[in-house]
Amino acid sequence: MRRRRAGRAMLLLLAALYGVFPVYYVTVQSLKTPEEDVFGNPLYVADPSFENYTELFATDGAPVRGYVVVPHVPFAIWVLNSTIVLTATVALTLLAGVPAAYALGRLRPPGWRWWRRALLATYVVPHTILFIPIYQVIIRLGLDDSHGALVLIYTTMALPFCVWILSAYYRHLPREIEESALVEGATPSRAFWRIVLPMSRNVLVAAGLFALGTAANDFMLASIFLIDRDQQTVAAGLGVMDVSLEELVAVAGVNLASIPIVILCALFARTYVRGITAAMVEGA
Amino acid sequence: MAPSLLLVLGVLAYPVAWEVWVSLTDFSSRSTGPPAFVGLANYARLASDVDFWSALLTTATYFAATTAAKLVLGVALALLLARPGRGRALVFLAVFLPWAYPGGVSVIGWYWMLNPPITTSYSTFMGGIKYAVDGVLGTGGWAFTSVALFNIWRGSSFTAIFLLAGLNAIPTELFEYAELETRSAWQRLRAVTLPLLRPYMALAVFLSFTTAFADLANVWMLTGGRIVFPVLGTQAYWLGIKAGQLAEGAARSLSLVPLLVLAILLLFRWFDRREAEDGAA
After folding, report:
1. Which residue does chain B place closest to A281, by CA atoms?
2. With contact defined as beta carbons under 8 Å apart, do B205 and B267 qualify?
3. Which of B1, B102, B117 lies nearest to residue A104, judging by beta carbons?
4. Within an 8 Å CB–CB cutoff, is residue A26 touching chain B?
5. Cα–Cα distance between A104 and A96 in angstroms, integer?
6. Would the pLDDT of A245 be above 60?
7. Among A239, B16, B203, B252, fewest CB within 10 Å belongs to which?
8. How far is A183 from chain B (nearest CA, A)?
9. Is A19–B263 a contact, with Cβ atoms under 8 angstroms apart?
10. How far apart are the C-alpha atoms of B31 and B97, rounded to whole Å?
11. B276 — pLDDT class (breaks 50, 70, 90)
């Protein structure tokens, strides 16, 4: 019994290491001075310095590396742009996803199962060449070089899964819940807003977090659709930095940009699991 | 329902139609006249193209290897986390971290860490691995493997959390019965847990497919194509975007669709069947 417990503890430790180590490794490098970067130990930092982080926000006196003057990056603006894009994506996904999911899960129009499948099937479309015609659509909509383009595309990427889990949840929700609200004299829309929506809170969080994760995972689309430096998100911006000269500053930027998202995810992690579980429980 | 469908199908319908049409023409930045309809000529050319088949093989291997690894790791981590115990909450967060850590930017950090551009304290070590792997797989092998590793690291986190939620959704009585009816833990896993998890695993596998390319594309864009291992996606990108051979690029890119459609039909059978049954009841 005791040995089994020890074995389990070992496995848990391994699992934790597996998740954390790469982030730890990257963080250690980002805290190094150039000297330590070259001569230090790769696994820890002896003399941590926040030089690479402050560099991201510096505005005057472009540093010279060798013969190359490295221009400053508008990191604060990038962070702001990322915030706008991510928030708008999550909001739009939920705004468009919840009615769709409710309709598919509850009202069940003819062929609802096929609509649901069709949404999920859009995931098989390969995006490689697709961004040329997508660009045409974006220009036609007057969204080129603007955040709207990214919000629109990210939403199309996140929606199918979100609609899937939300509609699964609404489908399993007992009808009596709305019926009793209607008996009490509530209008259907009121019953939805005041009763059904608050009940699905966990699933909404799960869908929102998935949308956030999807949008935050993209680099390619951001760097294609945002050309203007002051419009770029963190991902697009860091991508154009001359990484061979400034790899540590870029890594510091990566880390710094990740912190708020990681905290957000950590706060909602339990709700996320509960939400997906709620969507999947049969007849719950 | 309308706004969602309009958004997803509306934004994608025109591009997809455009791509299919282009793949049937000789559209190219090199030709002078308007694009002419050539039928299936682009696809016919693919069949006799050695590069195409090798890229297809690489693509299939990449999909299969990353998906299998994500599934195995995901199931293992989910089972580990499903049991109550001390320190579980912290380990749960640690397992959640790879997915929470935004991939779009972290893949940049990862790539440069695993493929150091200049002399750093870790580059000797990483260089050692790089040349060992490159020796086996050919130039660019390590760069490619490192992306696959990143994809597995991040994807297994998502799969694990997703399957953990799935495990929670299965009534505990079923596991209690299983405890009584089976002899060993291994038998229990094979006969009870895995079959119960199957619909969730199918959905996870499907999502793993669709993200497997995103990571590769991310790094590939970022390094200006310094990853030399061609998969269909990158080949299509070279031909279509860099070389202006849009028609051929589109054909190459679309050649994967039948395979993916087959995969999705199979998966629908697995994770949508239960719902089809109670829909009929």
Report:
1. B169
2. yes
3. B1
4. yes
5. 13
6. no
7. B16
8. 26
9. no
10. 50
11. very low
Task: Give B-chain residues touching A161 at CB under 8 angstroms.
Answer: 207
Task: State the burial class of residue A118 (Cβ atoms within 10 Å of its Cβ: 0-12, 13-18, 19+).
Answer: middle
Residue B36 included in any domain: no
Nearest to B217 by CA among B235, B233, B241: B233
Cα distance from A134 to chain B (closest Cα, Å)? 6
CB A149 within 8 A of CB A85: no
Token representation of residue B233: 């996606």
Residues of A in contact with B240 (CB under 8 A): 128-129, 132
Task: Report chain A residues whose CB lies below 8 A from the CB of B94.
Answer: 15-20
Buried b (16+ CB within 10 A) or exposed e, A265-275: beebbebbbbb
Query: Would you say residue A70 has pLDDT above 60?
Result: yes
Verify whether the Cβ–Cβ distance B218 to A163 is below 8 Å: no
Tell me if B253 and A16 make a contact (CB, 8 A cut-off): no
**Predicted confidence (pLDDT) per residue in B99-111, tens digit:** 888 876 677 667 7
pLDDT at residue number A119: 79
Q: Please report whether residue B129 resides in a domain.
A: yes
Provide the CATH number for the domain around residue B195.
1.10.3720.10
- pTM exceeding 0.90: no
Angle, CA of A206, A81 and A86, to the nearest 5°? 10
Count the domains in chain B: 1
Q: How far is B124 from chain A (nearest CA, A)?
A: 10
Is A75-280 in CATH node 2.60.120.10?
A: no
Q: How many CB atoms lie within 10 A of CB A192?
A: 18
CA distance B76 to chain A (A): 9
CA-closest candidate to residue A262, choices B150, B97, B103: B97
B213: three-class secondary structure by DSSP: helix
Distance from CA of B113 to the nearest CA of A (A): 7
B240 lies in some domain: no
> Any idea what DSSP says for residue A282?
T
Closest-CA residue in chain A for B7?
Answer: A156
Residue pair B158/B99 in contact (Cβ under 8 Å)? The answer is: yes
Strands A68-69 and A64-65: antiparallel
Question: Which pLDDT does position A65 carry in this prediction?
Answer: 63
Q: Would the CB atoms of B4 and A253 count as touching at under 8 Å?
A: no
- Residue contact A257–B97, C-beta within 8 A: no
The structural domains of chain A, with segments of one domain joined by +, span: 2-69, 75-280
Instruction: Tell me A110's DSSP state.
Output: T
* DSSP reduced 3-state for A69: strand
The pLDDT of residue B226 is 59
Which tens digits make up the pLDDT trace of A100-135?
Answer: 888 888 877 777 777 777 777 777 776 666 777 777
Residue B225 lies in a domain: yes
Domain around B157: 50-231+266-280
Q: In this predicted structure, what is the pLDDT of residue A138?
A: 81
Per-residue pLDDT tens digits for A189-228: 888 888 888 888 889 999 999 999 888 888 778 877 887 7
